Amino acid sequence: MTQIENAWGAGPGEDYETIAAPFRPIFTRIAENAIARDLGRDLPHEAIRDLKEAGFGAVRLPVEAGGKGASLPQFFNLLIELSAADSNITQALRGHFGFTEDILNTRDAARRALWLGRIGGGEITGNAWSEIGAGAALDRFATHVAEKDGRLVLNGAKYYTTGSLFADWIDVGASNAEGEGISVAVRRHAEGVDVVDDWDGFGQVLTASGTTTFRDVVVTPEDIVVDEARFRYSAAFYQLVHLATLAGIGRAITADVAKAVAERRRTYTHAAAARSSEDPQVLQVVGRIRAAAYAASAITLQAAASLQRAFDAHFADDEAAEEKANAIAELEAAQAQTVVSDLILEASTLLFDALGASATKKPAGLDRHWRNARTLASHNPRIYKHRIIGDFAVNGTPPPYQWRIGAAPG
């Protein structure tokens, strides 16, 4: 069924249904086993392999490079659909899509050609940027590239390396010998690379957001780029992946609660009907949840349009216009974040009001929605985004759209 037939609204662009159609059977298969994977901590290797083979990792690439030529709103709508099937998989691919977006923005023709070939050929990239300690907050990564025995080697440790366990490459934030911030692409299975699934969070448990260490990993100059050259709307882009994931969780909540209510036979003596499926109060709860999911999707896609404008501005040779478009994209992403997070967190709790206490049984897997939404909504705290939005509204202060996290320097 199309998005319109499902009452989620039309997909962005006249060709959205054509782009989405080949992936929907895969999304359906992924959804069928989502609860079992969560309960058994069964990492989604097969699901990610199916998406790779179908070209999902290349969907933003031009058609001539092996992609689908999807716009940013179309891309984020696809992420909403994937997240409705299993939000873990969207987050596991978040680093890959951010890296791909950087390649689409690069003005380095050789680098662009190299990576379009790799991504168009089905290869995906994981993420390794976060570190423990003060250096990361000051753009001085402890992870570094240096010369050793006539070769460049990478050494260091990274945390929250989401998706790297499933990847062909890992995009690593590091410092060079001059102290500059750089990103380095290394083969996931290169000698000296060790990826460990030690993520112990209560949500998004299948993203393999664990620890990765690098010990004298040989790197080539062609796979190193100065950090400042990366695409400028990256913070908004990465945040919007989370929002698309939350919107998809909202759709998954809607599907699960509607199915459970339709099948429920037990009722209460003081209920408004003999069956939950006929009880107007229960139906009202289900409707409220679905409306929240609808709104979350619509808000996410509105913010995605601002990213598309930032992408287009990058190629317009107007530095001032590009800077403004980047700032607006960051503000729109922040405004969307503060609302979407609330909508889906509330929906993940409301669903239990439509059901009985039996809905809390572990085999039902309904708790995964709150755990996953709460984990995603904890990224990039909303309290700071509210302040940034307010500062713009009152004082016209532009947002800080590139930032780091780490221990405060002593």
UniProtKB/TrEMBL annotation:
Pathway per the UniProt entry: Sulfur metabolism; dibenzothiophene degradation
Organism: Shinella sumterensis
InterPro entries noted in UniProt: Acyl-CoA_DH_C (IPR013107), Acyl-CoA_Oxase/DH_mid-dom (IPR006091), Acyl-CoA_Oxase/DH_mid-dom_sf (IPR046373), AcylCo_DH-like_C (IPR036250), AcylCoA_DH/ox_N (IPR013786), AcylCoA_DH/ox_N_sf (IPR037069), AcylCoA_DH/oxidase_NM_dom_sf (IPR009100)
Localisation per UniProt entry: Cytoplasm
One Gene Ontology cellular component annotation held by this UniProt entry: cytoplasm
GO molecular function: 3-methylbutanoyl-CoA dehydrogenase activity; flavin adenine dinucleotide binding; monooxygenase activity
Catalytic reaction(s) noted: dibenzothiophene + 2 FMNH2 + 2 O2 = dibenzothiophene 5,5-dioxide + 2 FMN + 2 H2O + 2 H(+); dibenzothiophene + FMNH2 + O2 = dibenzothiophene 5-oxide + FMN + H2O + H(+); dibenzothiophene 5-oxide + FMNH2 + O2 = dibenzothiophene 5,5-dioxide + FMN + H2O + H(+)
Name recorded for this polypeptide: Dibenzothiophene monooxygenase
